[in-house]
Structure formats: C-alpha cells, structure tokens
Amino acid sequence: MARPRLVSDDAILDATRRVLAESGPARLTLAAVGERAGLAAPTLMQRFGSKRGLLLAAATRSAQQVLPEADEAASRHASPLAALRTFLLAAAAHQLVDLGNDPEVRRQTQSRSDAVLAACERFYRAAQTSGELRPAADVQALARQTLVSWTGALAVTGLGPPRALIAEQLSALLAPHR
Questions:
Q1: Are the C-beta atoms of 15 and 36 separated by less than 8 Å?
Q2: Which of 95, 125, 141, 160 is such that its CA lies 20 to 30 A from the CA of 152?
Q3: Crossing angle, helix 162-174 and helix 80-91, to 10 degrees?
Q4: 100 has a pLDDT exceeding 70
C-alpha cells in the first residue's frame, strides 16, 4: 500500500517557484527545492522524474496562475494602474527557466505571455475608463510594450533587483500616457 503524500504537488511547485525567485535558475537544485518543501531530493525525483520534469510542472502551473493573480490584484485596488503594478510584481515570481529550445517550455512561456498581455490590456482599459490613462492611449500597443519591458526586467542582470526594475520601467512607460 502506498504511503499518503504529506506534501502536495502544489506545495512542491510553490517551493520551486520560491527557490527560482530567490536563487535563480542556475542555482535551482532538487535538494534546494526539497529542503524548502520539507522533502528529500529522491522524493522529488520519484514524483516528477527529473529536474526538467519538476520545472515543466512548475511552468505549467505558473502559466495557469497568471490570470487569477490579475483578478486578485484587481480586487485589492480601486486604481487599475495600482492593480497592474501589484500584478506585475507578483507575476515576476512566475519567471520560467530557459531549457533551450524545449518545445514544452516554449508553449508554457507563450501561455504565460498571452495571459500577462491579456491582463495588461484589461488593466489599461479599466484605467482609461477611470480616467487614470488618457483615452487616446493605444491599449494594445501599451500592453505589448509592458509585456516586453516586464520580460526584459526579469532577464537582465546588474541593474538591480527585478521587482525594483519592473516598478521603475512601468512608471517610465506610463508617464506619457497619464
């Protein structure tokens, strides 16, 4: 009879996301994730097959969490632009690991990008309605620019912490449209 799982897959994937956010993909190990989740590395191998399997599971879950996180940010703020900022900072934790040209990771990356783009468009339309954003602002173009800036802030090094860079770039991007 199989022993019951005391730590859920979701808890493991949350631990994976936290290790990625704190240490980056180069330092992510099964031992580090296992320590954070309270499990041994061999248990992670048994459940996910490999480090790649763990990362793909984390990427799949991450892409599914983007829009609910946008909804949560919207519910916490009266200002759509404040909600957008909160959402983008929270979504930074969904940074995906580059596993080369792995087609599954590329699909998950595209899903995450599509979800972030849709959330940005939604926040910008609400900001136009509330008067925080000029009515003439091109919402689709602004959402694309935000996605590119957000993705770039997650990728560059040496310019400070990604969350600070995201906040700085968002402010600069929005300034002409307010």
A1: yes
A2: 125
A3: 150
A4: no
Max CA distance (Å), the chain: 64
User: Are the C-beta atoms of 58 and 19 separated by less than 8 Å?
Assistant: no
DSSP-based three-state secondary structure for 98: coil
- What does the angle CA 170 – CA 64 – CA 11 come to, to the nearest 5 degrees? 105
- Residue 76: CB atoms within 10 A of its CB come to 11
- Find out whether 132 and 79 touch, Cβ atoms under 8 Å: yes
> Which residue in 142, 178, 139, 148 sits closest to 166, CA to CA?
148
Distance between CA 96 and CA 176 in Å, rounded? 31
Nearest to 147 by CA among 69, 88, 93: 88
Q: Which residue has the higher pLDDT, 25 or 123?
A: 123
Whether the model clears a pTM of 0.85, i.e. scores above it, the answer is: no
Phi-psi category of 62—alpha, beta or left, where left has phi over 0 and alpha has psi -120 to 50?
Answer: alpha
The pLDDT of residue 25 is 67
| Distance separating alpha carbons of residues 151 and 19, to the nearest angstrom | 19
Rounded Cα gap, residues 91 and 4, in angstroms? 32
